[in-house]
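Weekly modeling sync, notes
Attendees: AB, CL, MP (scribe)

Item 1: holo prediction request
CL wants a bound-state model with 1-deoxynojirimycin before deciding which constructs to order. AB pointed out that an apo prediction alone won't tell us much about the pocket. Agreed to run with the ligand included and paste results into these notes for async review.

Input as submitted:
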Amino acid sequence: MKKITFLFVLSFLLHNLSFAQNTKRDQFVSALMKKMTIDEKIGQLNLLTGEATTGSAVSSDVELKLKAGKVGGIFSLSTPEKIRKAQELALQSRLKIPAIFGMDVIHGYRTMFPIPLGMSATWDMDLIEKSAKMAAQEATADGISWTFSPMVDISRDPRWGRASEGSGEDVFLGSKIAAAMVKGYQGKDLAEKNTMMACVKHFALYGAAEGGRDYNTTDMSRVRMYNEYLPPYKAALDAGAGSIMASFNEIDGIPATANKWLLTDLLRKEWGFKGFVVTDYTGNNEMIDHGMGDIQTVTAKALHAGSDMDMVGEGFLNTLKKSLVEKKVTQAEIDRAVRLVLNAKYELGLFEDPFRYCDENRAKTEIYNSQTRAFSREVASKSFVLLKNKNNILPLKTSQKIAVVGPLINNKENMAGTWSVSEVRTNSITLMEGLRNTLGEKTEILQARGANIYTDPTMDANAAVFGKTTDRDNRSDEEMLFEAVRIAKNADVIVAALGESAEMSGESSSRSQIDIPENQRNLLKALVKTGKPVVLVLFTGRPLVLTWENENVDAILNVWFAGSEAGNAIADALYGKTIPSGKLSMSFPRNEGQIPVYYNHKNTGRPHSGKPGYEKFRSNYLDVANEPLFPFGYGLSYTTFEYGDIKLDKTSMTEGQQIKVSVDVKNTGNYDGEEVVQLYIRDKVGSNTRPVKELKDFKKVLIKKGETKTIDFSISINDLKYYTNELQYIAEKGEFEVMIGGDSDKVKKAGFDLK
Ligand code: NOJ
């Protein structure tokens, strides 16, 4: 009782404290807004780019506009010197309102971490939060106080290049990661010098683009949205994210940027979001091509719907005043947007000190140092997913002579992966450098290029944008292949480092065929033919189709694009200095025709029995199994784990109760290793059809060799709830199945009832 009273008083005090702060902020902002002209107000809603990054539009006359109070913020500008200069210009405007400086800090700032899809494979929330914190430390030391991250779009379509920027297919894992990242970026106080404001993106459903083609239409039922796509955005906002970015796609036939249901009814009214909405890059202008009207019409619609800040296109700047005069928007709508943008600047401490993030000394010491690099190496090794390891060919022995083959083995530009705008490319450690660091100068390492990324130079060029060259070799495929085979024949083991280049995933990098390009596969075939053991080190930004590879190579280590320390971390894993523990957050299909393939699908009325082979009049294909090649949650280790039976403390529960669930996991192999123990639930009967399983909890544990650990979970009513057709969030009485395992496919099962 005492504890409850204490908690009540504490929450009352905290609430009032934040209320008092908000009152102070609100008073300040109100007073400022009273002084602002309509032009100055509209100026605050204008976000310009320092350099063109992800579109063809470039901002012009930025200096003049800053001085004239026509700019609320700038992104893609960095270093304390440059930002100080720009801020000084903003402070020359009549009301001296500071600008906000943003950047796409996606997976690290200067010290790069693995691409987000790789980060999500760590299933390690502390690590992910720490990586975001470190990114904030570096970015704020370089003048930035706002990041366009995390991207929390659920994606079940690996053709979509931006799957690389997200956390995969699962709503539960995705929500946990979304919250961890926001906490890491924002810390406890946005006004601290080393924290920055997060911007959740892309609101909403951007990852469900039809055909996996970027920017394409999405269309889905509300019930699917609420259960399977919206929770990660909500989790990021609940964790305190200060801003959110509208997505490029349409929802229910209206682009997100001008979708009032999305940006006002759901976001503000239902979820209570208090921060601001920024459009994506020229998102306003693009509504002309969506067929929503001319620039004045679409920007009025966007403001009315709830968009507050206009990225790059200057539609707000050029038309809102006219729309106000013509009564197409209201003063209150403009004021709403201005207030939210100014609130954010206040929270970041920019009114108190506009140069808060311009500390040259911090820039010298806090960016890319031995500490950040060591952490990046650790994160990288935890993101690797071991997909196959026949006869324990991995880890390699230093006594074995290796031949390293592949187009990117010496390539620094491609190690960090897509969306690494603030990296210094020469910093990245290549695979050859990493191997050299591990094996020492004296060990002979055979090497050959073997292939280009693609045979076709145009395809190669498309895969090498933003100056990330693939160092194309002008020799023919045959010449490179013969050389590689000749060299590899002298080795004990072949390490074939193949797959995608960094920019084959990311924005506007959708692929219709998601395999290793044919010329690289031919090289791999030739290497396998030598009869030497072949380890495939896979560079990729998305799940690939690896059916042939899985049947024919000895080991597959998926290393994604692992960041600044990629080469060192790969060498650590290949030689057993680290033990792979990553688990897939997205299923790897057997072929493209299976897409979308995801673990938490519905059963249908005619489910396949699960036995091998095609079944007539059942939901399956004539030519391929239903199951993916590698399921969600899958990943091997150099050691092995054995799961005991599931123990429940009771087999039925009522609403207020919890069921304690435990399982013994034994490390039965020869190494200490980490395992992600995953708990899934199936609601066997519902008023809506329910998925065959849904992830509800997981624990990542270190288990020493020979050791058995008991892993405990508890299931409460909240784990059983879902949104019904009426969008009621409820748990329905009846039978449930609980499943625990090391991936979503191989699980132990038990059952209980909700009474
Ligand atoms: C477009 C991308 O969709 C978005 O993710 C990014 O933050 C902006 N460009 C700014 O670069």
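Recorded for review: The mean pLDDT is 96.
Action items: CL to compare against the apo run; MP to circulate these notes.
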